Amino acid sequence: MFDMFWRAIAIGIGATVAMDLWAIFLHKAFGQPRPNWGPVGRWVWHLRDKVFHDDIGGAAPYAHEKALGWAFHYFVGIVYGIILVVLAGAGWLAAPTFLPAFILGIVTVGAGWFLLAPGMGAGLGPPKAAPPEGVRGGDTVLENVFWEGGLG
Hints:
Blueprint: H1 2-30, H2 38-45, H3 65-88, H4 90-94, H5 98-119, H6 132-151
Helix pairs in contact: 1-3, 1-6, 2-3, 3-5, 5-6
């Protein structure tokens, strides 16, 4: 059981690193902006008072919001790794397959669309992002890079 726990943590960290490497690739190859974890850190900091904001940029800044955002990004990755191992089981760890990671990748897109985006003021789905279709498609690809990175 303890071994499964540590392997789940390693999967979560490895998948998060894969996701970050993908973001670097997109930045270098296509000029896509790198993720800014500062607003996420600000949102996490203000969770004690409020979950949903009209615009997280209007919330009071926190001195270490970028570091908190990065830490939260990896925390969520670790939690997702644990969820995958709990749902897929020890047998999956012995012989990982694509489908459980892919399905969880699709499901976890919902966390960004229905909790993080509206929490930061981008709305459900997130319709206030520019362009929303590009963000939705990018989120779906990014989550699956995360999950397939966890298989490595």
